[in-house]
Design goal:
9% strand, globular, 17 helices, 11 strands, binds protoporphyrin IX containing FE, alpha+beta
C-alpha cells in the first residue's frame, strides 16, 4: 500500500472507527513518509509515525506552529492565535509562564479531595441509574461529568453553565478535526468563540467584584496588579483554549480506557488499593487509546526528515497515537501492559507545548479508577462502543454498561 491509499483508508468511516491498522501500515513504510501533493493536503508535506522522529520534531523549538492563512478574519482563529497552544516563542513563552505558575503542586494537591468527592457523587448516581440491572451510559454518567465538574471547580466556571458551554466546546472541536474545515463548521466555531468571549468577560467582571479560590480569580488578581504580562483578551483566549483542551481529552481517557481495562479482569481486580498500578493503567490507556491522535508542526527551513525532504513552512503531520504503538519503542505495541517500562508515551505531547494539564488528568485517572472498580467490581460493557468519528480527538461517545447490581 502506498501513502495515499493509507491516508484514504484512514480518513474513511472504517479508518475513523479503527485507525490502528492504518498506523501499522504507515509503520511498515518507515518512520516518515512523503505525502504526494493533493488539493486536500496542499500544505502537508509528510506524515510521521516513528516514535523517535515524532519525539525529535516536537522537542525541537525551531519547528513551529505557524499561522493559518487569513486567521485575522475569523474569531475562532484570532482566539487560537492569541493563546499559548497555537503560538510560537516569544508569545508562547510569555503566556505559558503565566499559566504554568498557577498549576502549582499546592493547587494540584487541593484538587485531589475535589476529584474524590466528584467521583464518589457520580458513582452514587451510576448505582442509582443502574439499579435492578438497568443499562447505564458510562460516558453520560461518569466519563463526561467527572472531568467537567473537576475542571469547572478548578477554573471557576459555574456548574449551571456547563451544558451550554459543552455545546460550544463541541463546535470548536468539530472544526478542529482533520476534515472539519467546512464553511458551516467554521461559522459555528466562530459563533462559539464570540459567545465564549462574552461569557468570560462577564465572569471576569464578576470575579473582580467577588474573588474566590479558583484559577480565574487568581489570574484576574495577578492581571490587575500588573504582576503578569498578559492582556485581558489574551487571558480570555487562553481560558477558552485551556478548557477546550482539558475537556474531551479527559472524557476520552475514561471512555476509551474502560473497555481496555475490562478486557483485563486481573488488573481490574487488583486496582483498588494499588496506586502504582492505577498510575500504570492510566499511562497505558493513554498510550494505547490516545485521545489526541494528530499534532502538526511546520518546517523551519528546507530540510530532510529521515530520508524525506520537507520544504520550509510545509507542515508535517505527527501521528502521536501511531508513535505510541511504534514496535521499535514498545515491543508488542498492541498488548496492554500497565507495568511496561520504556519511554513515556506521546499522548500529552512533549517539548515546548507539553500538555499543561497532564498532571491534572493523571491525577483524575489515578483517583477515579480504583474507586470505580471498588464500587462496581462486576462492571461489564453491554453494547459495542461507538466512536465520535473525529480522527483528531478520537474517543468513545457512548458506552453502555451494566453496573452488576
Ligand atoms: C488525558 C487528557 C489530556 C490529553 C490526552 C492532552 C493532550 C495534550 C497534547 C497532546 C498537547 C500538546 C499539543 C501540541 O503539542 O500541539 C496538550 C497541550 C495542552 N493541554 Fe492537554 N491534554 C489532556 C488534558 C488537559 C487538561 C486537563 C488541561 C488543563 C487543565 C490541558 C491543557 C492543555 C494546554 C493549556 C495545552 C497547551 C500547552 C502549550 O501549548 O504550551 N490538557 N494537551
Amino acid at each position: 500500500m502506498d501513502v495515499n491509499e493509507i491516508l484514504s483508508g484512514l480518513y474513511s468511516e472504517q479508518g475513523r472507527q479503527n485507525p490502528y491498522p492504518w498506523y501499522a501500515a504507515l509503520h511498515a513504510l518507515g518512520p516518515v513518509s512523503a505525502i504526494p501533493p493533493r488539493p486536500e493536503h496542499r500544505t502537508v508535506g509528510a506524515v510521521a509515525v516513528g516514535y523517535d522522529l515524532v519525539d525529535a520534531v516536537l522537542r525541537d523549538p525551531e519547528w513551529r506552529k505557524g499561522s493559518p492563512p487569513g486567521w485575522q478574519e475569523q474569531e475562532i482563529l484570532r482566539t487560537f492565535m492569541s493563546s499559548m497552544m497555537f503560538t510560537d516563542p516569544p508569545e508562547h513563552t510569555r503566556m505559558r509562564a503565566v499559566f504554568a505558575k498557577t498549576f502549582t503542586p499546592r493547587r494540584l494537591g487541593a484538587l485531589e479531595p475535589v476529584i474524590a468527592r466528584v467521583v464518589d457523587t457520580m458513582l452514587e448516581r451510576m448505582a442509582e441509574s443502574g439499579a435492578g440491572g438497568a443499562e447505564v451510559d458510562f460516558v453520560a454518567d461518569f466519563a463526561y461529568p467527572v472531568p467537567a465538574l473537576v475542571m469547572a471547580e478548578f477554573i471557576g466556571l459555574p456548574e449551571a453553565d456547563l451544558a451550554w458551554y459543552r455545546q460550544r466546546v463541541d463546535w470548536i472541536d468539530e472544526y478542529m478535526d482533520v476534515a472539519g474545515k467546512t464553511p458551516e463548521r467554521l461559522a459555528l466555531a466562530n459563533r462559539a468563540a464570540e459567545e465564549l468571549r462574552v461569557f468570560y468577560r462577564d465572569l471576569i467582571a464578576h470575579r473582580r467584584r467577588r474573588p474566590g479560590e479558583d484559577l480565574i480569580s487568581g489570574l484576574v488578581e495577578a492581571l490587575d496588579s500588573g504582576e503578569v504580562d498578559l492582556t485581558e483578551d489574551e487571558l480570555i483566549s487562553n481560558l477558552i483554549v485551556l478548557f477546550n483542551a482539558s475537556f474531551v481529552t479527559t472524557v476520552y481517557m475514561f471512555s476509551n480506557g474502560l473497555p481496555l481495562l475490562l478486557a483485563h479482569p486481573d488488573t481490574v481486580a487488583a486496582l483498588p488499593g494499588d496506586e502504582t498500578l492505577a498510575r500504570g493503567c492510566v499511562d497505558e490507556v493513554l498510550r494505547m487509546q490516545s485521545p489526541v491522535h494528530f499534532l502538526a508542526r511546520a518546517a523551519p527551513r528546507d530540510t530532510d526528515l529521515g530520508d524525506v525532504p520537507v520544504r520550509q513552512g510545509e507542515n508535517v503531520l505527527l501521528i502521536i497515537a501511531g508513535a505510541n504503538r511504534d514496535p521499535v519503542r514498545f515491543p508488542e505495541p498492541d498488548r496492554f501492559d500497565p507495568r511496561r517500562d520504556g519511554p513515556p508515551s506521546l499522548a500529552f505531547g512533549v517539548g515546548l507545548h507539553f500538555c499543561l494539564g497532564a498532571a491534572v488528568s493523571r491525577l483524575e485517572g489515578t483517583v477515579a479508577l480504583p474507586r470505580l472498580f471498588a464500587r462496581f467490581p462486576d462492571l461489564t460493557v453491554t453494547r459495542r462502543p461507538t466512536y465520535s468519528g473525529s480522527l483528531f480527538l478520537r474517543g468513545i461517545d457512548k458506552l453502555f454498561v451494566s453496573t452488576g447490581g
